[in-house]
Batch of 2 targets.
Target 1
Amino acid sequence: MFQSATLKLTGWYLLILMVISILFSVAIYQTTSHEVDVRLTKLQSNLRITGGMAPDPNNLFRTTELGEASSHIVIELIYANVIILVSGGVISFLLARRTLRPIEEAHDAQTRFTSDASHELRTPLAAMKTELEVALRDKDSTKQDLEKILYSNLEEVDKLTGLSEMLLNLSRLDHDKLERTAVDIQDITREVIDLYDEPGGRVVVKTSSHPLVEGNETALTELVSVLIDNALKYSPSGSPVNVTISSSNKQLAFTVKNTGPGIDAEILPHIFDRFYRADNSRTKQDNKGYGLGLSLAKKIVELHNGELSVTSTPGKSTIFKVMLPTIQKSPSKI
């Protein structure tokens, strides 16, 4: 589809270029021919006056010279247009590819997203349908059996709810403008940690400053929640998760570090892709994620003019680092 569109766009570019070139060629031919005619007329008059040139009632000299000059001009313009046609075709093709490349990438990303979303939605729906069909066919089902099926279906509904909310969040971030206020990342981090209520103080927070950032509190809360949840989910049970908050050079650094198998180097560049899950390189526990959390985190950071990076040492640790611009005011003034 895009190959055909590229060729069509190349044709349009080339058509416009050649129409302009031909119009310029006609204008140049007429202007040059007129200038040559005027100069030949003056030359003929001067020769007649100063050199004693015999009168030429039929203007054969001027007509002959003008015809030769016109022929040379036409040939040179044809060569110029051929060169423009060839070089313009190559340039038009390159420009068409460059113009359509972002559209093609967006189309491919949308296609993959739709396919992945459909797959994620189809899996729990298929499980629910199978369990319900079995329950309806089994006439000897007891109350306990039916309750078990209902609880199982309720879990699948919760999965679908979580997935739909995550998809809506991504869509909202793609199209909505975020309302921004002064946000305290430390307060947000403490609230998120309290929600997880991990035993034994598994999440350890270290702060060296108290910076504020200008951003959307709901979105930044989601960002902190995604990173901490990801660190807890992909690390051995009971292992510490270290959160560090610091600032320097008008930048806030929010770092989340967890121990565990880490992420393989070939997988690392893809972990922010939607629906991507690096299960083969991380813990083998039952993780019920959809591969959307880190994609959402990346989008939130980009909307706040920040940077999100990740480093991982297989078999040791994984570190996610967020850099956000800070507000250069004291908390009391805010």
Target 2
Amino acid sequence: MVFLGFGFGVTQESWLPDAKQTGAAYTLPPGLAPLARHQADFTIVQGLTNKHSAEAHWGSTFWLTGANRYAEPGQSMHNSISADQVAARELGKDTRFTSLQLNGGDPSLDGPGHGPGLSLAWDAGGKPVAGLNDPVVAFHRLFSDETLPLAQRQAMLAKEGSVLDAVMEDASQLQRGLSKRDTDKLDEYFQSIREIEVRLSKEEKWLSVAKPKAPLTEPKPGLQGVAEVKLMYDLMVAALQTDSTRVITYRQPISTLLTSLGIKVAAHDMSHYSPGERMEASQKRDVTQSELLAHLIDKLKATQEPDGTTLFDHTSLAYGSNLRSVHNLDNCPTLLTGRGAGIKLGQHLVVSKDTPLCNAWLTMLHGIGVNAERHGDSTGVLKEIVA
């Protein structure tokens, strides 16, 4: 399962298909034109709403969670688990990396385009999951051999485990006489400790297992924008191909992408476009992102599995943004592809007003065998695209 999220939405006039043309017989708009060769293999869903994104440009924060940031009074922000991490509980059991979080460019350059968080992923307690910002670092994490001897790495893990034991013992002594709020905060802390324990246990299991040989060469450092996105996409395919992980999120760059295209308009200004330079920048960004996505789909289709199928046959991929344009949280641009979740492809679907974006995530989760009752603010699956 792969989630590709980008901030600041799209150019709605040239990215969204005509709402009157639904089903398979629809005209691909200019913003999606580079994907024409794959039109039979993706579905566009219009009308999905991400209503709980109180801060419209917080694209990374609520895109995969659908959380209500005001769910708990007195908190400045509250989030819940993201769809990728729900999937990782099932798909990540047998892989070295339970999930892989990738980030593009320098998130600080995008201003409010990403919002709070360290990636697109949020854990069961609604806390941010860290991501890898550099494709070179990601390459070495996936494929480079460990330099320390096995015994030394085992000793380091054992030391981390003993520190956690001491921390848990000290924390348990604090429980007596605490207020309800403090008790809740301590429970949250315990949950974080338990998650670290699970991670350490899994790392120990894989210590003696050699990493797979990289199916691509070591990347050059310093790549940004278009080159960086293309490389990250290639790394994703390599990670899936080697079964290093089965769940990936990628918080895509905006500012560095624009710079690499020779665009001088700031990302935030571009999203508040009107006819002229800003709109032209937005449209150029859309087309470039579609070209890159087409490249990724090409790679997924070209990567053969041992049984004669392709990686595309076993992958479920979502591509989109938390908002449509400007500060509009309705009709979030959503493209679904890959045959891994049993979704009807080659379709243009327009759903009823106020349909939660999380209905798409619930549909994908059900499609890969995770039978969650709900996710975020979902109200059910998108029955129209369930095969």
